[in-house]
Amino acid sequence: MTITDLIQSATIAAIQELYGETIPAEQASPTVTRKEFEGDFTIVTFPFTRFVKKAPPAIAQELGEFLVKNVPQINRFNVVQGFLNLVIGDVFWRDFLLEIADNQDFGRQPKNGRRVMIEYCSPNTNKPLHLGHVRNILLGWSCSKIYEAAGYDVVKVQIVNDRGIAICKSMLAWQKFGEGATPESTGTKSDHFVGNFYVLFEQKFQVEYFEWQKSQVARDIFENRVEIIKNEKSKIEVEPVMDLNDTSTLSSIEIANPVFDSDKEKWGKFFKVYKNTYFNEHSQLGREAREMLLRWEAGDPATIELWRKMNGWVYAGFEETYRSLGVSFDRFYYESQTYLLGKDLLEQGLANGAFYKKDDGSVWVDLTDAKLDHKLLLRSDGTSVYITQDLGTAQMRYRDFGAERMVYVVGDEQNYHFQVLFETLKRLGEPYADGLFHLSYGMVDLPTGKMKSREGTVVDADDLIAEVISEAREASKERGEIVGLPKAEQEDILRKIGLAALKFHIIKVHPKKRMMFDPKESVDLQGQTGPHIQYAYVRIKSVLRKAADFGFRISDFDSAPSEIRNPKSEIEPQEKELISQLYRFPEAIETAAAEYDPSTVANYCYDLAKAFHRFFTDLSILKAESEEARTFRLQLCQAVANVLKTGMDLLGIEMPERM
Q1: Element (DSSP H or E) covering residue 436
Q2: In Å, how far from its chain's centre is CA 597?
Q3: 531: helix, coil or strand?
Q4: Number of structural domains the chain divides into
Q5: Is 452 within 8 Å of 127 (Cβ atoms)?
Q6: Mean pLDDT score of the chain, rounded to an integer?
Q7: How many whole angstroms separate alpha carbon 151 and alpha carbon 165?
Q8: Left, alpha or beta for 81 (phi > 0: left; psi -120 to 50: alpha)?
Q9: Same-domain check for residues 28 and 155
Q10: What is the DSSP letter of 122?
Q11: Confidence grade of residue 480 (pLDDT, cut at 50, 70, 90)
């Protein structure tokens, strides 16, 4: 039983004995005492006034006296208005430290026999992984590690978007303009190689589009723009009849290439809106890309062979990036294998009245009672929409793994989609529907601005990894602390520091918040950064190495007499702060798992490291005032090192021995 469980049960018993009332457990749950007051845990007594008929401070006084008398671990108490602050005795903290000092698995829970599936990354095979994918991957990976630490069996999956018009664009560009080049012949990382052709397609398309705008057909369309915009309103997300004099969204090429000078602002604005329609109805490149997609769907051997070759290049590149980030997956699903799934579920939904069919044959679900409107599930021509295959994929995964929870790590622009998906699965009565969760996260911005894949302005994951390692190298040069180590060891340390900077800077932010990533800021040893936490660990390892030089080993204390193993009679405030932080580690893991929020663990690790740095500055360790104090502080150092290593591992961050 934990100390919080003990306080809770004792409080329930006290209320029963003192006032003859039975209270729910949540009313007796203690919280951590605020730092400006003396105490370790606090009980709020305001809810008890309903049946006690006394002022909250009077209730707190009576309750405190009862707890001190009946709970040996509680040393004393104080009352601040209606808040009862309890001080836990030093004996409890000493015993706790002795229990965990050499336990490298402290915080991890035993297996609970429950399974959770986490989907993350889910890239497209027309471009390399970028900064947005990095946040997705790091959230998914850290969630999987946290759930494993909480006792779950975790299955890590991704669905690869390996089909569709975007993939055909990169395939067509290579076929038309590649001249047989390969990643090997150009010395280009294979997923970047394919991504370059996706960008090249867009560049060629832009040239074609602006040339076409000089035609009479384009002029006629422009003259009828008001009616066209009205007709297109349901297809594209623009305001009807926008202010065509507003040039704020025009690119430099659109302003520099007006066909009719008198209408250049209106012209550019309109044809920015009209771009998708041009691609589908007028573009030669668009027609060729669509024809390639039709050939793929028909199983044309040459098209399938090209598709497999280029996707193979991308997969090889992805694997290299995954290795650099230190992540992996248990199962890959591919959209080319799942895009036809879900139609049997539609028949099931029609049969039980969950769905309805319109006169044109299209299938819909009415979710208005859940404030989600009517949603199309199958087009009138019998073709699926995205949600159809997502329904089928969810069912297939449940059959594959039987997970009671399925977590989808996907950006917040898909919030509505997942609300509809989950509600639809509930209407179908699927047994896993109540265990579905969308881990929605905000986008990542850079100091240089937003990213655009088609224009080639994304920050590739590989470039970002290289940049943070470079920043770590520059910061290390200024300190000069690893220059005497072998070159390979230096590079390994710099890799760990750089990746810690990247990962922690992203994970420490609550998933739902949009964030800014600054590589230089991320490697600061003094800020709320991964390297700052690593430095606390490195300090501890240095102290323990020096202690080992004169014969100290933590493991030696397991069989030593109690007066040697746990000799210190009084605990300094800095020591107690560290021990109480350590005590809360399992709770941090439990909270992070319950709330799907790795930032809970990240910020816990930072708070623990910050508390250690204060302890290290304020108190001597190796030159402590007594042998007993030195022994106690070395035990405390070992426990902090273990928890920091475990906590950072849950974020996918490795800890160096030196830096």
Answers
A1: strand 436-441
A2: 7
A3: helix
A4: 4
A5: no
A6: 90
A7: 42
A8: left
A9: no
A10: -
A11: confident
Range of the domain at 17: 3-88
**Phi-psi group of 20: left, alpha or beta (phi > 0 → left; psi -120 to 50 → alpha; rest → beta):** left
* Residue 634 sits in the same domain as residue 491: yes
CA 32/CA 136 separation, integer angstroms: 32
- Locus of tokens 């090429």: 253
Burial of 302 (0-12, 13-18, 19+ CB in 10 A): exposed
Does 172 lie in the same domain as 150? no
CA distance readout (Å), 424 to 338, 375, 382, 387, 521: 18, 9, 19, 10, 44
Query: How many Å apart are CA 651 and CA 605, to the nearest integer?
Result: 10
Closest to 508 measured CA to CA, from 243, 232, 142, 193: 142
* Helix (H) / strand (E) containing 334: strand 331-334
Per-residue pLDDT band at 252 (split at 50, 70, 90): very low
Cα 132 from Cα 124, distance rounded (Å): 12
| DSSP β-bridge partners for residue 460 | 130
Beta bridge partners of 74: 88
Token pair of 196, please?
A: 């370059």
- Contact assessment for residue 404 and residue 116, using Cβ atoms and an 8 Å cutoff: yes
* C-beta separation of 89 from 628 below 8 A: no
Strands (E), 189-309: none
Question: Helices 190-212 and 284-297 sit at what angle, rounded to 10 degrees?
Answer: 130
Burial class (CB in 10 A: 0-12, 13-18, 19+), 41: buried
Give the span between the Cα atoms of 253 and 145, in whole angstroms. Answer: 47
Beta-carbon-side half-sphere exposure of residue 436 (alpha carbons within 13 Å): 22
At which residue do the structure tokens 């044959």 appear?
Answer: 361
What pLDDT is attached to residue 568? Answer: 55
Looking at the DSSP assignment, which residues form a beta bridge with residue 84? Answer: 43, 79
**Residue 222's pLDDT is what?**
85
Pairing, β 405-411 against β 115-119? parallel
Q: What angle do CA 397, 399, 403 make, to 5 degrees?
A: 65
Give Dmax over CA atoms of the chain in angstroms.
97
pLDDT value at 242 more than 50: no
Whole-number Å distance between alpha carbons of 394 and 415 = 17
Length of the chain: 659
Which has the minimum average pLDDT: 6-20, 23-37, 240-254, 566-580? 240-254
279 shares a domain with 338: no
State the amino acid at position 274 in one-letter form. Y
Pairing between β-strand 436-441 and β-strand 405-411 as defined by DSSP bridges: parallel
Sole residue written with tokens 């329930």: 12
Q: Which residue, 246, 269, 297, sits at the end of a domain?
A: 297
80 three-state secondary structure: strand
Neighbours of 475 (CB within 10 A): 19
What the block records as the tokens of 587 is 């709770």
- Whether 656 is covered by a domain: the verdict is no
Q: Are 297 and 124 in contact (CB under 8 A)?
A: no
Shortest CA distance to 385 belongs to which of 377, 394, 393, 374? 377
Residues 514, 621: one domain? yes
**568, 94 Cβ separation under 8 angstroms:** yes
* DSSP sequence for 167-180: HHHHHHHHHHH-TT
- Asked whether 133 and 461 are in contact (CB, 8 A), the reply is yes
Same structural domain for residues 434 and 536? Answer: no
CB atoms within 10 A of CB 294: 12
Residue range 335-366, pLDDT digits in tens = 999 998 999 999 999 999 999 999 999 999 99
Rounded-to-integer distance, Cα 534 and Cα 461, Å:
23
